[in-house]
Amino acid sequence: MALHREKILTPSFWVLLAFTVIGFYCIGLRYVMGIGAVSNLSDGFPWGIWIAYDVATGTALACGGYALAIVIYIMNGWKYHPLIRSAIVTSLFGYALAGFSVMVDLGRYWNAYSFFMPSRWQVNSVMFEVAVCVMAYNVVLAIELLPAILERFVHSKNPRFPKLKEYARKVYPKLDKILIFFIVLGITLPTMHQSSLGSMMIIAGSKLNPIWQTGFLPILFLINAMYIGYSVIIFESTLSSVVFGRPFEKEVRVIAKVVPYLTAAWLIIRFADLYHRGHLSTAFSGDYYSKMFLVETLLIAGGAYMLTWKHFRMSPRWVFVSAVMLCVGGSWYRFSVYIIGFNPAKGWEYFPSLPEFFITLGLVAFEILGYMVLVKMFPIMPNLEGHKKNA
Amino acid sequence: MMKKTRREFIKLAALSGAGIAAAPLAAEASAPIAANEEAVGMLYDATLCVGCKACVASCKNVNDMDAAPAPNDADRLWDAPEDLDYRTRNIIKLYKDGEGDFSYVKYQCMHCIKPSCVSACPVGAMQQEKGRGIVFYDKDICIGCRYCQVACPFNIPKFEWPKAFPKIVKCDLCKFTNLKDKGIPACCDVCPTKAVIFGKRDFLLAEAKKRIAENPDKYQKEIYGEFEVGGTNVIYIAGETFDNLGFRELEHDSNAAFSENIQHTIYKGFVAPVALYGFLAFVALKNRKNHHGHGHGHDAKHEDKHGSEK
Ligand code: SF4
Ligand code: SF4
Ligand code: SF4
């Protein structure tokens, strides 16, 4: 019946479970003993990897669904439709991770319901915009995924809950008709909040190193999210072609073609802005910040440059390598804006503590775990008869 | 085909990017921030401060703050805060250079005219009183995101890191305590040398200028807080350079105003997001029609296959 009925309890499952357990143990500690007891966060560095990685970078890595939706529904006329589901699932899990981490990070989490009370909305706050957009996007992602879940019930032969099947049959076609409006919303919302994730640090003023502090942060973050999103799709689909024994998806090569244009636009804005503000020399001064800038720029430019060559684009291995370079470089940029380039005042330093790492690792492991289970239970992966293999 | 894709893509990028890219350029033309006539604040004159720390003790007393014992004070006999933290809203520090020159300096919230912390707070837990311009905090609304800490150019808001149910701590000009009861903040109330005085900002600024004019050799020319980040209601004059006293050189524009301008340019009347949605919906619907016109959707295929299985 189900196309992807595969073993769930694999060795990798247990490893991920172990990390999840350790992570959740640390989260427990945080709730009992306070954030200060488990983290190296301080009044100088109030945000650490929970925000810089899980939220600011994690949601960019989760932008595969967003990036692909642009290609499929806007640019190419539904051509690579089969890829979208797995991308949406990754997005959903990535954004859920962000949501989870935020609840770990929020000092007064029990007041988080403030976001649902219009009297407390503070619309000047960039964070308010990000929070509302991200919450809305999570709902949209869930709706976009609903057809996959419903299909499972529609197509079940001996349904355990016959009522559910009947219901699913009724809803499915209706949902199919209006889904496009949610898909478009699913493109608009990330455009808004990914750019706002950049705007978030503008208010930090000169506490953020001038190499990164600019009014162009929103557009830089938006384009950055797009090329990271595409790179993640390349990364994922190359990886799953190995793990699930699927053929290398040709669509990936088309996506790989778009990336260099985006990256070029990004680099042009980046350098023109540095030049315009008179900080090109700061960026190449050779100090710590400048080195961080160079690594980030070389990874991004290098990864994109490789993709401009047909020779590299045709080779799964090299496409994979450049995707990894772009993901790492693109994420590095976000880390620079949120942590590396941040210098509140003399004497403050930050490096994540072990429990901080474990909490992030645990949440990521939990995310992958959930992804694996979902993918194996519901028709998420593109339909490819004859390519079923056990992981 | 690729040609068309590229064109479509550029169109999209242009539309979604235009608003965002134009924002910083448009935002540069922001109006200067004017201080409110009713605004109150403090003037701290470092040349008058004798470092008695009566203000530190009184602030703690009045506002019910915990002591911060020194690290090797096992008996916890002394309140010896090293810096501002969740137990200390204001502190006196000593600057000394090699040549025997020294100066005290007081740190607390600067009560910015356009406060970054207020602009950053997503739920309005950091607020600025209308009229008097006092920046204060409401723990019952705060979600503890600490964006106010990231945003504050003076690193003032502090967080109760060791607590399971923490809050943000900072000077609120004794809005709910001494100012309410006696009409003057506790630190200004107890200062024996009147090194820190309370009053309307206009008055304080005039007073600062007068003192500098009368004693140009004694004072630095600059009044710290007059223009920094758009101006603050707490202002400083000193004999030492403000750099030596631990104050960063800050931009004269308010980061909060700049950030809000960019955000408002992008989201003005919600036109850009709605236009983007409309454009995307138009293209997507057109594409769907073409796609369905060919009559073999992914889902339809799916349906058929399973239908025939039964
Ligand atoms: S000094 Fe910091 S905490 Fe005080 S009003 Fe200004 S931004 Fe807010
Ligand atoms: S920590 Fe509290 S006061 Fe500070 S920005 Fe967040 S919600 Fe506002
Ligand atoms: S005004 Fe009040 S709260 Fe602020 S430093 Fe002075 S005594 Fe403390």
UniProtKB/TrEMBL annotation, chain B:
<dbReference type="GO" id="GO:0046872">
    <property type="term" value="F:metal ion binding"/>
</dbReference>
<feature type="compositionally biased region" description="Basic and acidic residues">
    <location>
        <begin position="296"/>
        <end position="310"/>
    </location>
</feature>
<dbReference type="InterPro" id="IPR051555">
    <property type="entry name" value="FDH_Electron_Transfer_Unit"/>
</dbReference>
<feature type="binding site">
    <location>
        <position position="52"/>
    </location>
    <ligand>
        <name>[4Fe-4S] cluster 1</name>
    </ligand>
</feature>
<dbReference type="GO" id="GO:0030313">
    <property type="term" value="C:cell envelope"/>
</dbReference>
<dbReference type="GO" id="GO:0051539">
    <property type="term" value="F:4 iron, 4 sulfur cluster binding"/>
</dbReference>
<keyword id="KW-0479">Metal-binding</keyword>
<keyword id="KW-0408">Iron</keyword>
<feature type="binding site">
    <location>
        <position position="174"/>
    </location>
    <ligand>
        <name>[4Fe-4S] cluster 2</name>
    </ligand>
</feature>
<feature type="binding site">
    <location>
        <position position="55"/>
    </location>
    <ligand>
        <name>[4Fe-4S] cluster 1</name>
    </ligand>
</feature>
<keyword id="KW-0732">Signal</keyword>
<dbReference type="InterPro" id="IPR014603">
    <property type="entry name" value="Formate_DH_Fe-S_su"/>
</dbReference>
<feature type="binding site">
    <location>
        <position position="112"/>
    </location>
    <ligand>
        <name>[4Fe-4S] cluster 3</name>
    </ligand>
</feature>
<dbReference type="InterPro" id="IPR006311">
    <property type="entry name" value="TAT_signal"/>
</dbReference>
<feature type="binding site">
    <location>
        <position position="145"/>
    </location>
    <ligand>
        <name>[4Fe-4S] cluster 4</name>
    </ligand>
</feature>
<dbReference type="GO" id="GO:0045333">
    <property type="term" value="P:cellular respiration"/>
</dbReference>
<feature type="binding site">
    <location>
        <position position="142"/>
    </location>
    <ligand>
        <name>[4Fe-4S] cluster 4</name>
    </ligand>
</feature>
<dbReference type="InterPro" id="IPR017896">
    <property type="entry name" value="4Fe4S_Fe-S-bd"/>
</dbReference>
<dbReference type="Pfam" id="PF13247">
    <property type="entry name" value="Fer4_11"/>
</dbReference>
<feature type="binding site">
    <location>
        <position position="187"/>
    </location>
    <ligand>
        <name>[4Fe-4S] cluster 2</name>
    </ligand>
</feature>
<keyword id="KW-0004">4Fe-4S</keyword>
<feature type="binding site">
    <location>
        <position position="171"/>
    </location>
    <ligand>
        <name>[4Fe-4S] cluster 2</name>
    </ligand>
</feature>
<keyword id="KW-0411">Iron-sulfur</keyword>
<feature type="domain" description="4Fe-4S ferredoxin-type">
    <location>
        <begin position="133"/>
        <end position="162"/>
    </location>
</feature>
<feature type="binding site">
    <location>
        <position position="59"/>
    </location>
    <ligand>
        <name>[4Fe-4S] cluster 2</name>
    </ligand>
</feature>
<dbReference type="InterPro" id="IPR017900">
    <property type="entry name" value="4Fe4S_Fe_S_CS"/>
</dbReference>
<protein>
    <submittedName>
        <fullName>Hydrogenase 2 operon protein HybA</fullName>
    </submittedName>
</protein>
<feature type="domain" description="4Fe-4S ferredoxin-type">
    <location>
        <begin position="40"/>
        <end position="70"/>
    </location>
</feature>
<feature type="domain" description="4Fe-4S ferredoxin-type">
    <location>
        <begin position="100"/>
        <end position="131"/>
    </location>
</feature>
<feature type="binding site">
    <location>
        <position position="121"/>
    </location>
    <ligand>
        <name>[4Fe-4S] cluster 4</name>
    </ligand>
</feature>
<feature type="binding site">
    <location>
        <position position="117"/>
    </location>
    <ligand>
        <name>[4Fe-4S] cluster 3</name>
    </ligand>
</feature>
<feature type="region of interest" description="Disordered">
    <location>
        <begin position="291"/>
        <end position="310"/>
    </location>
</feature>
<keyword id="KW-0677">Repeat</keyword>
<feature type="binding site">
    <location>
        <position position="49"/>
    </location>
    <ligand>
        <name>[4Fe-4S] cluster 1</name>
    </ligand>
</feature>
<feature type="binding site">
    <location>
        <position position="152"/>
    </location>
    <ligand>
        <name>[4Fe-4S] cluster 3</name>
    </ligand>
</feature>
<feature type="binding site">
    <location>
        <position position="148"/>
    </location>
    <ligand>
        <name>[4Fe-4S] cluster 4</name>
    </ligand>
</feature>
<feature type="binding site">
    <location>
        <position position="109"/>
    </location>
    <ligand>
        <name>[4Fe-4S] cluster 3</name>
    </ligand>
</feature>
<dbReference type="GO" id="GO:0015944">
    <property type="term" value="P:formate oxidation"/>
</dbReference>
<feature type="signal peptide">
    <location>
        <begin position="1"/>
        <end position="26"/>
    </location>
</feature>
<feature type="binding site">
    <location>
        <position position="191"/>
    </location>
    <ligand>
        <name>[4Fe-4S] cluster 1</name>
    </ligand>
</feature>
